[in-house]
């Protein structure tokens, strides 16, 4: 019987789910999905690019800009902030 390697599909899903555990990782994923640079998103919501970078790198656990960021990215604020509920806005 041949020895099978790791199931890459399951490993990839596990990695993606683990990556979405923080506010910063959800923000970064949603920004990239929207095709925006940090500078573009920061300018849209009225914050500095440095502040946005700090959030994405998990140096800042939350932000008063969360509702504006969620609206600009077309995602639910609760999903962005806490990872709960649906991702996309209806």
TrEMBL record:
<feature type="domain" description="HTH cro/C1-type">
    <location>
        <begin position="27"/>
        <end position="80"/>
    </location>
</feature>
<dbReference type="InterPro" id="IPR050807">
    <property type="entry name" value="TransReg_Diox_bact_type"/>
</dbReference>
<dbReference type="GO" id="GO:0005829">
    <property type="term" value="C:cytosol"/>
</dbReference>
<dbReference type="GO" id="GO:0003677">
    <property type="term" value="F:DNA binding"/>
</dbReference>
<protein>
    <submittedName>
        <fullName>Helix-turn-helix transcriptional regulator</fullName>
    </submittedName>
</protein>
<dbReference type="GO" id="GO:0003700">
    <property type="term" value="F:DNA-binding transcription factor activity"/>
</dbReference>
<dbReference type="InterPro" id="IPR010982">
    <property type="entry name" value="Lambda_DNA-bd_dom_sf"/>
</dbReference>
<dbReference type="InterPro" id="IPR001387">
    <property type="entry name" value="Cro/C1-type_HTH"/>
</dbReference>
<keyword id="KW-0238">DNA-binding</keyword>
<dbReference type="Pfam" id="PF12844">
    <property type="entry name" value="HTH_19"/>
</dbReference>
């Amino acid at each position: 019987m041949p020895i099978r390697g790791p199931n890459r599909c399951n490993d990839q899903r596990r990695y993606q789910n683990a990556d979405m555990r923080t506010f910063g990782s959800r923000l970064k994923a949603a920004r990239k999905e929207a095709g925006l640079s940090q500078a573009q998103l920061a300018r849209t919501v009225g914050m500095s690019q440095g502040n946005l970078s700090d959030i994405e790198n998990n140096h800042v656990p939350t932000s008063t800009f969360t509702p504006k960021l969620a609206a600009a990215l077309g995602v639910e604020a609760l999903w962005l902030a806490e990872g709960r509920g649906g991702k996309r806005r209806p």
